[in-house]
Each structure stands twice: as structure tokens, then as C-alpha cells.
Design a protein that fits this description.
Layout lengths: L1 E2 L3 H5 L1 H9 L5 H8 L7 H20 L11 H9 L7 H22 L6 H4 L9 H10 L12 H31 L8 E3 L2 E7 L8 E6 L5 E6 H32 L3 H27 L5 E2 L5 E6 L2 H9 L7 E5 L5 E5 L6 H16 L11 E2 L4 E5 L12 H15 L4 E5 L8 H17 L3 E5 L3 H9 L3 E9 L4 E8 L7 H8 L3 H10 L2 H83 L4 H26 L13 E4 L5 E8 L2 E6 L2 E6 L3 E4 L6 H17 L3 E3 L5 H17 L4 E5 L6 H10 L5 E6 L9 E6 L1
InterPro entries: DNA_mismatch_repair_MutS_C, DNA_mismatch_repair_MutS_core, DNA_mismatch_repair_MutS_sf, MutS, MutS2, P-loop_NTPase, Smr_dom, Smr_dom_sf
GO molecular function: ATP binding; ATP hydrolysis activity; ATP-dependent DNA damage sensor activity; endonuclease activity; mismatched DNA binding; ribosomal large subunit binding; rRNA binding
Protein name: Endonuclease MutS2
Length: 788
């Protein structure tokens, strides 16, 4: 229940429905949009919202749904239901096209069985009755016209008409030729008058040719005559045309009789097409809003995270501005939020955002908020927004407010969402404040949920003391004297009346006089609120800095623990492997020494030969030393790997060059290939240890890529998944080769591909910023990606 009825207009829900209707393809889809209203059954809300979410997934990530022809089958079915009535050729053609769309949609979902369960439920147990289309196609051609051979009689009539028309044309051509030869005709050729083919004669010669005059020119100098010998042939054609029309009607009546038993099925097909158009429109609107599906619960509660007012979002998007997101929570402990703060600070927008998003969610629409947001179910929506004074009803502004308060206090419950803007205004504040406080006390006892905006100090004090009520304020930069449009719960806000008046330029003597007229207590309260605002902002900035540093410390600690864990896990294995290598080399060294001594003895201490043998022995001993150092942990080159270094992959022994380092991983270039491996699986190599042929090949490959690569890619016409894969390859190459930017041509369209590409690129740390191309060179159809 919504009270008053115009609350949907005040909150902007009517405008939301009007925007959704612009995405409908058919009248029946628009009619369903008109019927959108908040639901109170959790299962229905969940089903409708999931249908919209699934259709959004199809539009963004899957092949297009084959929705081409949507005609109102219900109207044709109701007409065919009447005995003796028949559908026209055009109506049968529209039925055929609509049924082909229905069958294509059913096949589409059957190919994706189980992928979109809530959309599949729309046509569950709905059969594909192809005999209807076959019957229609036996009678109509591909353009929706009756086939000449739809029946044997129709074929004969059509042939006779053609024969009679040819004979009539032959006769009249002969008469016309003779008249021309005699000089009786006027300028011009054969023409049609009253559906009859006539020849133009000069008026003075009209008696020279027997026939019937059907018309004359404006000047009276030319008459249009149908020759007597052609008259009977034209009458025959006319009679045959009547026979043809009667036969066509007979065929259509017979076809309608065959269609009549399938009327219930046609109505079911109509329902499916209507719902698909309806859900599609909601999904397209959700994409435009960048809306998502929140978590649903059956409790009268809500928690909005990074929520945005839909209408404000669309308006700001046109002006290329951003909306400050809203974060708010209403539950059993924090049932009513009392929002205060400066004028034009965003209090009303905050309240309307909460009310509108709750209405949208309970109507099965996705909302522009983070997917981690939570939305419950309210059975009643009560709103007091704006000036509802009525001359006809003799209601003043304040009387209108009081009549609403009467209804609220009598009918509200724990499952009512109450929204009141500028609570208590419209009368003397000395009396309006206490009345508003009394109404709020009654509503609080009823355990209502809601949002109330106010400037009254007594309501702020009451909210501070009453259980279930929570003060909140719209933040204000009291240095720059401008609102921040950020809602902060836990404390009331100052109206900043004097500060704003001073900034506007109100004379100082006026401000001083005003300050003397307000009570000392009110001065102290307002000053205290301003001081609290400043202290809160300072503490908030400090807290953010500490949180950032805490995160950095936690990350360093985590990385250190991971490294220590790795060393502990692999210490024994590394030492064991090193010892085995050392033992093997020592064994080989001993053998080499014995062989060297034997060779020296055999050559009888030849100087040159002895010198060569000593060099070989020295080289073997150096290799042995390297192995011993590795076993003792002296060699620690892996700790200083940087971009551009050459490394060896421990498992395979392959040599590669480091092109990027990401946390515990390194991205390597192995020729034309790119590979991501754990940092602990590679060891650094000196440049001189890298084989010359590998360095030379890498340099040649890089040179070839630099000369043949241009940082621009065109993904127009690609599916989203294919486009992102192609962009990822170009991005890697552009970054590796040191290009400062990359141009992506994606086209304008409805902006879906542009949004998906930019969202995808934001995860890359190498991306500094993204911007549209200059309007003269493509505008928002091209994205320029700039790298760090």
C-alpha cells in the first residue's frame, strides 16, 4: 500500500516507468510496464528481479536473443474465437511471424538448458505447435499475400483473369492505334478512369468511336472513352475479380476455422512475447543505470552500499558529471534515520534515493547500487514530501501535512517504510517542533522504519535519546563552505545558516543582529555541532591514513610470512639436492685428479701437456666451489630480480627475460611466448651466462615487433568476450614495448561495449587513465588508454 497515491510521482517512480517504456518493442510490453507496482511477496520479487538479471547477462555476455517480430497475437486470437469471423491476410502473416519468434526463443533457451532458469520458467511446458505455421504457409507467400494456387478454384480464376485482361488489352490497343491513325486522339496514352481502361479522344471526335465516356479533362477538350467492344471483356474481368475475392474469403474462413482450436495456445504465446519484451526493457534500463541485483531478504530492512539516485545518475551522465554514492543501513536497531544538515546539502535527495530504490527493488527492478547491498520487503510505503496544499479541499500546507500524520500514526506498523521531508515545517516552529516530536514518538513505538529530514533541534535531541532512532547528517566542508553530499550516521548536523548567509554576502550588521536574537542555548548547540563537524573530519582523515598504513604493514607481514613459509618448506629439499650435486662433483673431481696424475706420468711431465691438464683441473674445482656455495646458501641472486633481467626456469632449464613482476609472480618472455611463473621457480642469470643465440633472437624479435606493431585496435562488431581477448594481447605488447598509450576503436552504439572494455581495463595497474577521443576524431566511440 502506498499513501498518498501521488507519492510514486513525488519519489520519481512514475518517471522510472516512463523511461523503461522507451525500451519496449511492442504495445503489449508497454502495457505491462504500466502495471508495474511494488510487490509484497518475497518469492515474486525474487523471481522478477532474477529474470531481469538473467536477461541483462544475455544482453551483456551472450548471443542476441532472436526477438524480431512482436505482434499482439491476443487481438487476433480473440477475433478468431468468433464463429464465422476470419483473419485477414495481414493478420495471418503477423501471427506467423510472431510464432516464428516464439519458437526461435524457445530453441535459444533449450540450447542453454539450465543457464537461465528464471527466464526458462516463462515458457515451461509450452509446446512448439508448428502445424499452425505450416497451415498458414500453405496459403500465404513469404510477403504475406494469398498464393495464386492456394486452392484449385483460385488458380483457375487467376488464370482466367489474366487471359481476359490480355484479350481486353489487345483489343483496346488495336482501337487506340486505329484512332491515332485517323487523328481522333488527344495527346497522351491509355489511362484508367473509374477502374476501366480508356483511350483519350478529342471532344469533337467522341461520336466517331462507339463506347462509353467515363470522364473528360478540366478544359472539356478531351474525353476518356471505353470502347464498346472492350466493355464486355472488362465486365468479365470485374466479375472474375469478385469471384476471386469470394474464394479468398472462403480460404481465409477455412484457415481461421483450423486455427480456432489453438486459441488457448496462441494466448499463451502472446503472454510469452509480452513478458520477454517487458523483461528485456527492464534489463536494458538496468544496463543504462549500471544497476545490479542486491541481496534480498524477507525482513523490513535495507542496507544500501554505493547507491545512486537513478534519475540524478542519468541526468549527470548526460552532463558528464558523477553522483556521490549513498551508504545507509536501516534494521531492527537503527530503524529510523533522522537526517539534518545545511540547506541544499542533499537531505531530500538522500531520502528520495532510499524510497525510490526500495520501490524499484520491490517491483522486480535492478537498482544502481553495489551487489552487496541488501534489500528487504515492506508492506506499506508512507511519504510526506513537498507541498500538498489544496484550494478545492480548503487545506493549507500545514493542514495537508497534519492529515498525513494522522494517517501515518493510525495505520503504520513495523513493516511500514515512512519517508518525511522537512518534518514539522509549515507552522510556527515553537509549536511545529513539539507536534513533530510527539508524532515521531508514536511512530517509534509502532516500530516503523524510515527516513526523516529536519532542521529542528528538538527532533535531533529526541533521536539522540530514543531507542531505534539514529541521528545522521549531510557532511559540509566548513572551510570551502560547500556541501559534500555524503551521509554520515551517528551525529546530527548543523544547518550552517549563519555561515551560508555570510558567504552569500548578507551584511555583517544583519548577521550580528540575528545572532543576538537567538537563544544562548541554541547558539551553544549550533557552535558545538560545527566544532564536532571539524573534529570529525580531522579524525576521519587521520583514520583513513592509519588504515592505509595498516594495510601496507599487513601486506608486508603477509609477504614475509609467505617467504618464510616457502623457505621452511623447501629448505630440506634444497640442501639435499645441493649435497647430492656436491657429492657427485667431488666424485668426478677425484676421478679427474687421478686421471690428471696418470696422464702426467704417462707423458713424463711434458710442460705444455701438464699446463693444459692443470687448467682443466682448475676449472673443475671452480665448478665444485659454486656448488658448495649454493648448498650453503651463499648464492642469492633470486632476491634481486628486476624487469629486463635474464632468468632460468628451475624446473625446465629454459632461459627467459623478465618483462613484468607482479607480487609473487614474474611474467617472462620466451621468444614469442609469454609465461607467468612463481618467483621462487626462477633464478637470476648474469648476462654473460645467457647464450648469444638467445639474446640475438630476442633482440631480433623485439625489433621486428616494434617495426610492425601499431598501438591501435578496432573491435567494432566483435562480441564482448572476443573483444576483451584481443585487447588483452595488444595491451601486453604495448606495455612490453614501452608505448605510452593504446587506442581502442569500439564504436558508439548503446555504449555497452565501451563500458565493458573500460571496466575490464581498470584491473590493470599499468593503466593510468582512460579518456574519449576528441569529438572531431570519433568522440566516445574511441577510448584512449594511457599507461603509467
Amino acid at each position: 500500500m502506498i499513501y498518498p497515491e501521488n507519492a510514486v510521482d513525488k519519489l520519481g517512480f512514475t518517471e522510472i516507468k516512463a523511461l523503461i517504456k522507451t525500451y519496449c518493442l511492442s504495445e503489449m510490453g508497454s502495457q505491462m510496464v504500466d502495471k508495474i507496482q511494488p510487490l509484497h511477496q518475497f518469492d515474486q520479487i525474487n523471481k522478477f528481479m532474477r529474470q531481469t538479471y538473467e536477461f541483462k547477462e544475455i544482453l551483456v555476455n551472450d548471443s542476441p536473443l532472436p526477438i524480431e517480430h512482436l505482434y499482439p497475437i491476443r487481438r487476433f486470437a480473440e477475433k478468431a474465437r468468433v464463429e464465422g469471423a476470419f483473419l485477414t491476410e495481414e493478420e495471418f502473416f503477423h501471427v506467423s511471424l510472431s510464432l516464428k519468434t516464439v519458437f526461435a526463443v524457445i530453441r535459444y533457451f533449450n540450447e542453454r538448458d539450465g543457464q537461465y532458469p528464471n527466464l526458462e520458467a516463462l515458457f515451461e511446458h509450452l509446446p512448439i505447435e508448428k502445424s499452425i505455421i505450416r497451415d498458414i504457409e500453405q496459403v500465404l507467400d513469404i510477403k504475406g499475400k494469398i498464393k495464386p494456387n492456394a486452392s484449385a478454384l483460385l488458380a483457375d480464376i487467376t488464370a482466367n483473369i489474366s487471359k481476359a485482361e490480355q484479350e481486353a488489352r489487345k483489343r483496346i490497343d488495336q482501337v487506340f492505334k486505329n484512332a491515332q491513325g485517323s487523328g481522333w486522339t488527344a495527346d497522351g496514352n491509355l489511362t484508367v478512369r473509374d477502374g476501366r481502361l480508356c483511350i483519350p479522344l478529342l471532344a469533337e471526335n467522341k461520336r466517331k468511336v462507339k463506347g462509353f465516356i467515363h470522364d473528360e479533362s478540366a478544359t472539356g477538350q478531351t474525353v476518356f472513352l471505353e470502347p464498346e467492344e472492350v466493355f464486355h471483356l472488362n465486365n468479365k474481368v470485374r466479375d472474375l475479380e469478385f469471384d476471386k475475392r469470394r474464394e479468398i474469403i472462403r480460404i481465409l474462413v477455412e484457415l481461421t476455422d483450423r486455427l480456432r482450436p489453438n486459441i488457448p495456445l496462441l494466448l499463451a504465446y502472446h503472454g510469452l512475447l509480452s513478458k520477454l519484451d517487458f523483461v528485456r526493457a527492464k534489463a536494458l534500463f538496468a544496463i543504462e543505470l549500471e544497476a545490479d541485483m542486491p541481496q534480498l531478504s524477507n525482513d523490513p530492512s535495507l542496507e544500501l552500499i554505493n547507491a545512486k539516485h537513478p534519475l540524478l545518475l542519468l541526468n549527470f551522465k548526460k552532463e558528464k558529471q558523477t553522483v556521490v554514492p549513498l551508504n545507509v543501513k536501516i534494521d531492527d536497531q537503527q530503524r529510523v534515520i533522522v537526517v539534518s544538515g545545511p540547506n541544499a546539502g542533499g537531505k531530500s535527495v538522500c531520502m528520495k534515493t532510499i524510497g525510490l530504490l526500495q520501490l524499484m527493488a520491490q517491483s522486480g527492478l535492478l537498482i544502481p547500487a553495489d551487489e552487496s547491498s541488501k534489500v528487504g520487503v515492506f508492506k506499506q510505503f508512507f511519504a510526506d514530501i513537498g507541498d500538498d496544499q489544496s484550494i478545492e479541499s480548503d487545506l493549507s500546507t500545514y493542514s495537508a501535512h497534519l492529515s498525513k500524520m494522522k494517517h501515518f500514526t493510525e495505520n503504520a506498523s513495523g513493516k511500514t517504510l515512512v519517508l518525511i521531508d522537512e518534518f514539522g515545517t509549515g507552522t510556527d516552529p515553537q509549536f511545529g517542533g513539539p507536534i513533530a516530536e510527539a508524532v515521531l514518538e508514536v511512530l517509534n513505538r509502532k516500530k516503523i522504519r524510515g527516513v526523516i529530514t529536519t532542521h529542528y533541534s528538538n527532533l535531533k535531541s529526541f533521536a539522540n535519546a530514543a531507542e531505534g532512532l539514529e541521528n545522521a547528517s549531510m557532511l559540509f566542508d566548513n572551510t570551502a563552505m560547500k556541501p559534500l553530499y555524503i551521509l554520515e550516521t551517528g551525529k546530527p548536523g548543523s544547518s550552517y545558516a549563519f555561515e551560508i548567509a555570510q558567504k552569500i554576502g548578507l551584511p555583517q550588521e544583519v548577521l550580528n543582529a540575528a545572532k543576538q536574537k537567538i537563544g544562548a542555548q541554541q547558539k551553544r548547540v549550533d557552535t558545538l555541532l560545527v566544532d564536532l563537524e571539524r573534529e570529525k573530519k580531522s579524525l576521519s582523515d587521520t583514520k583513513r591514513l592509519l588504515d592505509r598504513r595498516t594495510l601496507d604493514i599487513d601486506k608486508l607481514q603477509h609477504d614475509n610470512q609467505e617467504l618464510q613459509r616457502y623457505l621452511e618448506e623447501n629448505k630440506k629439499g634444497i640442501l639435499k639436492q645441493a649435497k647430492l650435486e656436491a657429492q657427485e662433483i667431488i666424485k668426478n673431481a677425484n676421478k679427474l685428479i687421478e686421471n690428471t696424475i696418470a696422464e702426467i706420468k704417462h707423458t713424463k711431465a711434458d710442460k705444455d701437456r701438464t699446463k693444459d691438464l692443470r687448467k682443466n683441473l682448475q676449472h673443475a674445482l671452480e665448478n665444485n666451489t659454486v656448488v658448495e656455495q649454493r648448498a650453503k646458501g651463499i648464492k642469492q641472486t633470486n632476491q634481486e630480480i628486476a624487469i629486463g633481467d635474464w632468468v632460468k626456469i628451475i624446473d625446465s632449464g629454459n632461459v627467459a627475460q623478465v618483462i613484468e613482476i607482479a607480487k609473487d609472480n614474474v611474467i617472462l618472455a620466451l621468444g614469442d611466448l609469454r609465461s607467468v611463473v612463481k618467483r621462487k621457480r626462477v633464478e637470476k642469470m648474469a648476462n654473460k651466462e645467457v647464450p648469444k643465440e638467445i639474446r640475438k633472437a630476442h633482440s631480433a624479435t623485439l625489433t621486428e615487433e616494434l617495426t610492425g606493431f601499431y598501438p591501435e585496435i578496432d573491435v567494432r562488431g566483435m562480441r564482448t568476450e572476443n573483444a576483451l581477448q584481443a585487447i588483452e594481447k595488444y595491451l601486453d605488447r604495448a606495455v612490453m614495448m614501452g608505448f605510452p598509450s593504446l587506442k581502442i576503436i569500439h564504436g558508439k552504439g548503446d555504449g555497452i561495449l565501451r563500458k565493458m572494455i573500460r571496466d575490464y581495463l581498470r584491473k590493470y595497474t599499468q593503466v593510468n587513465r582512460m579518456e574519449d577521443e576528441h569529438p572531431d576524431r570519433g568522440g566516445d566511440g574511441i577510448t584512449n588508454v594511457h599507461f603509467n
